[in-house]
Write a structure and sequence with these properties.
three-stranded antiparallel β-sheet; 8 strands; Toxin ADP-ribosyltransferase, Chain A, domain 1; five-stranded mixed β-sheet; globular
């Protein structure tokens, strides 16, 4: 789905800048948690989210032992193992507070769901609210293929220890009561 009329009106340089700054060096990060089914069902493709807090994510993606995996495509996560070697076992990366995400896909296999999020700079909010691209479609294809493969693996035990679980137990873009921040 392309919103051609909006793109024609948009400055081509602005669109190119948006895509270059968002998709160049894109890496996948992961966060598994157990959420109520009604919270999971609130995520819909093309939704724009804002997370008020910092987003703790892992560069490791193995089996899923919870009901929800956030797969986050970002080029702005910061590796925290350089600052604190004790967190390297989590593949711990941090996305700044006030981050914006576009829900690209919600993909369910059995009773496990992957919510695929694209992290982008607030400057590009209007672009991502109004357009979709073939690059996003490629990210969705890769995200689904990865989930199909990784769901068959055993979970990484380090990502299920109490410290990491405490850091990653809350939903992204919504309060603990299921209300979206935007």
């Amino acid at each position: 789905m392309h919103y051609v009329s909006y793109i024609r009106c948009m400055d081509k340089n602005q669109l190119q800048e948006t895509y270059n700054n968002t998709f160049a060096g894109l890496t996948m990060y992961y966060r598994d948690c157990e959420l109520k089914a009604d919270f999971v069902s609130k995520y819909q493709p093309f939704q724009i989210l804002m997370e008020r807090g910092f987003t703790d994510v892992s560069s490791f993606a193995e089996g899923l032992g919870k009901n929800l995996r956030y797969a986050i495509a970002s080029n702005q996560a910061r590796y925290m193992g350089q600052i604190n070697p004790d967190v390297a076992k989590y593949g711990f990366n941090l996305i700044q507070s006030g981050a914006y995400y576009k829900v690209l896909d919600v993909y369910t296999i059995g009773d496990q769901t992957q919510v695929l999020l694209l992290h982008f700079n607030e400057t590009y909010l209007d672009v991502f609210k109004s357009t979709t691209s073939n690059i996003e479609e490629q990210v969705i294809e890769k995200g689904r293929a990865s989930f199909d493969q990784k769901i068959k693996l055993q979970p990484n035990p380090d990502l299920y220890d109490a410290n990491w679980q405490q850091r990653t137990s809350f939903p992204i873009g919504m309060s603990d009561t299921g209300e979206f921040f935007l």
